[in-house]
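We emphasize that the prediction below concerns an isolated chain of 241 residues; any contacts that depend on oligomerization or on bound cofactors are therefore not represented. The input was used exactly as deposited, without trimming of termini.
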Amino acid sequence: MNIFFKIIPYVIPYSFFFKILRRLISGKVNSMTLDTALKELLVFDNFLKNEIATVGTNIGKGKHIKHDIMKYHHFFSQNILPNQKVLDIGCGNASLAMSVLKDVDCKITGVEICKSNYKIAKKNTKHTSIKIIQADATKFTFKNTFDIIILSNVLEHIKDRVNFLKKLKIQIKPKKILIRVPILQRDWTVLKKKEIGIEWRLDKTHEIEYTEKNFKKEMLEAGLKIKKLELIWSEIWCVLE
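Result of the prediction step, given as a token string:
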């Protein structure tokens, strides 16, 4: 059976294959109870989103093509001045750091916990002024100050977020903290998935997916002042002091 499923996609032309698949799904859904049909379609929706994300990242050769559409890098660049010292926490493969550096002549240090991402980031930034450190930012003791802290799709992965932000504020003394996080209410299906017990998070490692209300509450508890908050692309983009 496994061999069958491996061979079929290569034997049948892709356009015909997906046409058959859509008809099979539609036919099966019509034979099910409405509640069961909705549940199975929502599970399939997660599968499709994961496949789309994988293909989008592969097309971009490690950088998801959605970034070129969202242009979220500009949010960070426009809040950084030349020569400022920038700390990019959870820098991943350093694509954001490199993009910011193209826009602003600043001094960037990236921190990445994942060893494989760290190695890619080091390779990507080899011929730039960007410095990359492998460390767990929640445990690392920062001895240098920075003007700007970037947390781009990072905060939602941290369990003790309030104390983490307090630590950054005390140790680093930033002039600004720039945060980008996903929001919970990005689509009605997210809340429905959560209600009926289907995986609803964008990533299984997320400790939280925010509403505007609980985001503001956490920032207040961390002693940070919101200077600008924007809801865009199902995310919160925020400038804090």
